[in-house]
Specification:
The protein is α+β, with helices and mostly antiparallel strands. The protein is 38% helix and 25% strand.
């Protein structure tokens, strides 16, 4: 069926094909040209009149494309810059092929005929480029995919985790059930089988994740993000930007002698923060953590004796 109307994008695409076609079909009838491009003669005339104003910079008769079609037969001259049929360059072919690879490897369920066409086009493009290339899996994306798969299908997950507060690496066996972002970091919410409680893990400290079997744990109805947090009261002996940033507080909101209450997922983080304050911070609550700070300080001083 002949197209009576086309979009500007259609016209640009057609005109890029029109020039090399006319260069190899000089004197073709206007009606045949319209039939070949499956449009009306009026649309072809509009294309030809537009081409008449195209050419190299300078835009004098010496640079513009020269057309003749008043007689009903079309000839073209001075159009060598557009003489070649449109084709993709190597970078475009690689981008398109990699995009097809992503489509094939995605979780989308493709119709059998569409999947076959994708595979065929990918093979043809690889033959044209004559090179071997592939997508190297990004570690972060792969990890996120495994975790998302575990959450979706209710599977357990085992991974290595580096704890900055304990300065140690350990293996965790968990049942993941959610993500969230806080302070530009992404976190995983999961049920820890060894702790038998909800825990939060920072993504960039997780490695070597392996998806396990169907979980026997039922995911909690609500987030455990605020559960099992340790509360501590800290006295500010000297206000400094370093301590304010460490504790996540505003420097203008505190002064020497003031007291604040903070929360942490682990007591180790509070202990290390107090010790790192080097006397700028004093722990006033809880009593058990105060004893731990004192013991750690004594052990550190003993190293200098």
């Amino acid at each position: 069926m002949v197209k009576e109307n086309t979009t500007p994008l259609d016209q640009v695409s057609r005109m890029l094909d029109l020039v090399p076609f006319l260069l190899t079909h000089q004197g073709i009838a206007l009606s045949e040209l319209a039939k070949h491009f499956n449009v009306s003669e009026e649309i072809v005339l509009d294309d030809l009149n537009t081409l008449w104003m195209c050419g190299l910079p300078g835009y004098t008769p010496l640079e513009l494309i020269d057309l003749s079609f008043e007689s009903g037969f079309v000839t073209i001259r001075n159009a060598n810059t557009l003489a070649k049929v449109r084709k993709l360059n190597s970078s475009e072919i690689i981008s398109l092929t990699l995009g097809l690879d992503l489509l094939k490897d995605s979780q989308m369920t493709l119709d059998t005929s569409i999947a076959a066409r994708v595979e065929s086009l990918s093979d043809r493009l690889r033959e044209i480029i004559g090179a071997s290339f592939f997508i190297e899996e990004d570690g972060y994306a792969a990890l996120r995919g495994k975790i998302h798969h575990s959450i979706t299908h209710g599977l357990d997950l085992t991974f290595d985790y580096f704890s900055l507060t304990k300065d140690s690496r350990s293996q965790r066996h968990v049942t993941p059930y959610g993500f969230y972002i806080e302070d530009n970091f992404e976190y995983l919410e999961a049920y820890c089988h060894s702790a038998q409680a909800g825990r939060v893990y920072r993504f960039d400290r997780i490695s070597e994740a392996v998806v396990g079997d169907q979980s026997t744990v039922t995911a909690p109805v609500k987030s455990q993000r605020s559960a099992d947090r340790v509360r501590a009261a800290i006295q500010i002996n000297r206000a400094s930007r370093r301590n304010a940033e460490r504790l996540g507080i505003s420097l203008v909101a505190v002064s020497a002698g003031s007291e604040i209450v903070i929360e942490s997922f682990t007591p180790e983080w509070i202990l290390r923060s107090i010790l790192a304050g080097a006397g700028d911070l004093s722990l006033t609550q809880p009593a058990g953590l105060i004893a731990a700070v004192s013991q750690s300080a004594r052990l550190a001083l003993a190293l200098y004796e």
